[in-house]
Please model this.
Amino acid sequence: MNTGYAAVIGVAHADVFGFSLGGGVALQLALDYPELVGRLIAASVGYSADGTHAEISDPARWATSTRMPTAEDFEQMRAAYQRVAPDPGHFDEFRAHTGQAAGSMSWTQAELGRIGAPTLLIFGDHDFIKCEHAVEMSELISGAQLAVLPGATHMDVLRRADLMIPLIQGFLG
Model:
């Protein structure tokens, strides 16, 4: 066990949940520090760029895509950022950096196969991530469970508490 890291955060073992870019962080944590991760829940994160729908990688199609966050979604993100950021005037830079980071995340099939934590993968049926990619990902992580939320875009996944809470509670036991 990496006792140095556990001592710094004061937690020896934790269940981890991550959404979107945070889902990528959760996957990487499970790979880098498997002894620290009890159960892993990763929502709306793919493992390679070819798992996303074509319009996501084509900025010219973003305005007409029903999978992309809406102007209202971005305003909600901006307001949340401004409430907590030490320098609230940098939302656009923050958004660009997080988008770039999310676009650069990838793992090999072998890496996903190394994840040993019990895993729940959650996606929307109208998410950025293709449903067939989500299925493939669930098959690569040994014993992973897969949930696909009906009528949910990428942004809607967290808005579907009516579905998410029972899924997560059941998974965590």
Observations:
- The first helix runs from residue 3 to 9.
- Helices lie at 3-9, 21-32, 71-84, 91-104, 109-113, 131-140, 156-159, 161-172.
